[in-house]
Each structure stands twice: as structure tokens, then as C-alpha cells.
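Table S5 (text form). Sequence records supplied for joint modeling of the two-component complex.
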Amino acid sequence: MKFRFQYIYTAFILSFIILTVLSFLFYKRLMSTNRFSNEVEHTYETLYLLNKVDSYLKDAISAERGFILSRDSTLLEPYLLNQHKINPLIDSLRTLSIDNARQQVHFNNLKRIMSERLQMISSNINKAALGEEAHLDLRLLRAKVLMNEYDLMLQRIEGEARRMLLARNEQKELYQRNTPNFLYVIFVFSAITFVVSFFIINRELRKRLGFQQQLQQQVGVLNRANAELEQLTHTASHHLQEPLRKIRTFADRLANKHKESIPEETRGLLHKIENTAAHMQGLTDDMAKYSSLITAQEYPTDVDLNYVLLKVAEKMDERLALQEGKLIITNSLPVIRGIPHQLATLFEQLIDNSLKFSRKDEPPVITITREEISGKKISDTVTSLFGGTIYHKVSVADNGMGFSNEFAEKIFELFQKLDTHQLFYQSKGIGLAMVQRIMINHGGNVNATGIIGKGATFYLYFPIPPV
Amino acid sequence: MQKLFILIAEDDADDRFLLQTAFEENGFTDTLHFVENGIELLEYLTGIMHKKNLDIQYPGFILLDLNMPKKDGREVLKEIKQHPELKKIPVIVFTTTKNEHEIRRCYELGANTYVVKPVSFDSLVKVIYEIRSYWFETASIPV
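The corresponding C-alpha cell record, covering 610 residues in total, follows.
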């Protein structure tokens, strides 16, 4: 029921690319339209100014001719008024097409022709004013030649301006023709992506919802089963106590009241009844203890395992001394989130286990070590409970009887004993089950390895919460 | 004034027999009144409350078993200790269960003592002696 995230990633990346391309196209389009309209404006301005230059020159020429014919100085007015405006106009024309080298040359030529012609006009007017009429034909002919040159230049400038306008127009049209096609392709593509991702995400969500409902149902069933089991253990552990106690009391009463008249054999049998009832009472007691570990809702606090171990060691000191045992703690234990009394029980049971299964010929040595370990490195049998985080690994090693590794999991089962006969009186087979339960209560787990005749090591894994 | 008596709430006939025997074994002659469940216990106590003018006294103390049918010891304990009149009667919880949570809860509800029923008959006789002599001789109780 893994949710396929790659679909979402793909859909997201595609949408992002489409959005980027669209924005880029839009930007480019806007910029080119802008540039184009600027250029058109320039061209028209050029043509307009050119026209103005031309009309000023024509005014000057008609004033020149009029004056030569009539010597009426009033006819010179438009010439005198406008002649000095021509050069600045040509300069501004030149700046308008500063990026076109060919136009620059044309404007330079135009300026030269213009100044030559204006000089001619001015000298002609002067001569006319002084009444000098020599070489008038020649002068007029020269002026005509110059004017031909001027017309040619004007045509070239105009032609160049129009040609550029046309080229830009073509470019723009090509671009405008292609953009809609491209946009259309992108639109179709993005529409397909959109619809496909919609269906995929929809399908995944539906699946997930189905799983969730299934899960909820299962949780409901489990909760009911759990409540019933809880009831059952409570009944078993508490209600069984009463008849057991009564069996013991009556057996005791019988043995004591008729002390004199009971034969030895009967007394032995009564003793057996009493012992068996006591054993069973112990079992129900343990069952109650174990079930309280499952049902107890206690809130974890910060617990210093060094302190817990110190307290446990103090408590076990007598037994350790009795067996001449040693408890070695090689490095400092961590502070973890936990339930103090459960953690105390944990170490108590582990040390108790090591002492119980110590070898007759050698005093027990229990070594406790801590290291940090990544969750991925923990063996497969316990990993189902683990995430990928880091764990405190606390090892409790002893030099006792050990066990065969084929029983490495079995030893944690409730009321499981590997050796029934030898240790019947000592062990009820609940200690290690409690150890495992306590570790599970702390979000961790425990496993063990052993070598027969050499010793056993228990590994406790406490999760380190992410900072 | 009437002689002090002991009220025992115990559903189990064997246990009632054992208690009675333990009292006799100690040579106590106190009146023992037995009730078999929580409802009977409360009815008995309210009965006394209504007939107080007739000079009937409350029991000197109550021995209360926790596991009883109809209304168990915890509920009865709670009701007695919340009752304005009945809460003055000492209640000794006398039960098989030795459970930390149970013990704490009973004291929280107002139990005066919590005693685990002993296993051997001899210890039962001894415990009965101790309880009885503590509440009737060492301690002072409301009359």
C-alpha cells in the first residue's frame, strides 16, 4: 500500500516546466513587440525629419531663385528663418539611427551635400545683391548637379529606413505565426498531463482510503480482542489467587490440626499439595505482574540508566556477594526517556537471570557495555520494530551456562524454560519475557546470543529520539 | 450500651468459616455479623442508621473483601467513605490480592487498613488477633 510519490513528483515537475516555458514565451513576446513598436516609431520619425529637412532646403532654394529674379529681400525670409535649423535636424537624424552604420555614412554625405548647397545659396544671394551676374548659368548648373546627388542620397536614406521596417515586420510576423503553434502544443501537452495526474492521484487516494478503512476495522477488532484478553488475564491472575490460597490454607490447617493422627506419608502428600499450590500462586502472581506491564499506562520521564543500575546493584548486592559474583560496568550508560521502575525491573531480571544460570565452577561475572548503533545494523529478527534511527545498544554479558543459539528467540517467550528439571525450583520463565515487554514499552527491543558453557549476552536497544 | 461487634463482608463460605474459626481459636467472643456482598453490606448499615434511636450501634470495624458479587468491595468502600454518617466507621480491606495499584487505590478511597489474607491458617489466626487487638484495644474508635 505504498503511495506512489513519483507520480506526484513527475506531475509537479512537468507543470513547473510548462509554467516556466509559458512565462518565458510571454516575456519574449512582450519584449519583441515592444522593440518592434519602438523601431517602427524610429522609422517614421526618421521619415518625418527627413521630410522636414527636405522642405527647409526646398524653401531655401525657392527663396534663392526668387531673390535672383526679383531682388526682393522679403522673399529671403523663409531661408533666413530656417537655414540654421537644417544641420541640427540632420544631427538628430543621425542619432536616431546610431546602430545602423550604413545610414550613418548616408547622413554624413547628406550633411556634406547640404552644407555645400547652403554655401552655394548664400554666395548666390550675395552675388545677386551686389548685382554680379557673371557665370550665373554655370552656378545654377552646379547647383543642379548637387541637387541630383542630394535626391539620390535622400532616396537611399528613405529606402534604407523602409527596408529595415519591412525586415522587422517580416521577422515579427514569422514569430507571431510560430508562437500560437507552440502555445497550442504546450496547451495540449499540459492538459494531458493535468488529466492524467488527476486520475492517478485520485486512484491512489481511493486506494489509500480503502486501506485506511481496512486498517480502522482491524484496529477495532484488535481493540476488542485486546480488551477481552485483558479481562481474561485479570481474571486468571486475580480470581485464581483466591482458590489457591484456600487450598493452601486448608492443607495447612489439616496438617496442623491433626498433626498427631496423620501418618508420615499423608503429611508428605499434603506438603506436595501445598508446594504445588504455592508454585501455581507464583505463576498467577507473575502473570499479574506481566499483564500489568502490558496494560499499565505510565508516562515516560528522563531516566539516568546509571542511577537505575546503581539501585539495582545495591539491591542485588547480597546475592552477588553470596555467589562471589562481579558486576562490571565498562562505560557510562545513557539518559533515556523511560519508566523508572520498569527499567529497574529490566536490569534486575537480567542480572537475576545471569546469577541463576551461572556455572557451578566459576563465580559469575556480568559485564555491561554501551555503544551507539544505527537501526539498520540491528539483526533482521528484531528490525520489524525499528526505524532507521540511532539506538543505544546496551549489552549485558555473562560467563554462565549460556544457551544454544537455536533457542535465542524462544527464551523470551512467557513461561518458557530450556531446562525444566534442573531449575524448576528457581525459575518460572517470566523474567526474560518481562525484559522483552519492557523493551517494547520503551520503543526498543532485545535479543540475545549464547555459547553453551561459555556465557550469554543480551543486547538491549533503546531508540535515541531525534533532536 | 451494647457490646462492640465486627461486621465482615465476605462472599466465600469457606473464608467465612475460616474467619469464624480464627476468631474462636483466639478465644474472642465478639459478635461477628456476616454479609455476603456489597449491597447487603450497605443495606445493613443504612438499617442501623435508621434504627439508631433504638440504641443499636455501628460495628466497631468492618472487614471488607474486595472481590464480591453484585457490588464489589471497591465500590462499597467508596460509598461508605463518601457517606456523611457512615464514613467514620473504620474499614479494613481484607483481600487476597497483593497489588500495588489496588493497595494505593483502596487507601485513596479512604480505607483505614489494607491487609492481605495470609496463606497458612496459623498466620490467619495471628493476623485476626492483631487486627482485633489493634482496633479494640490499642486504637480509639468513634462510638
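Note: Strands of chain A lie at 301-304, 326-329, 335-338, 365-374, 390-397, 445-451, 455-463.
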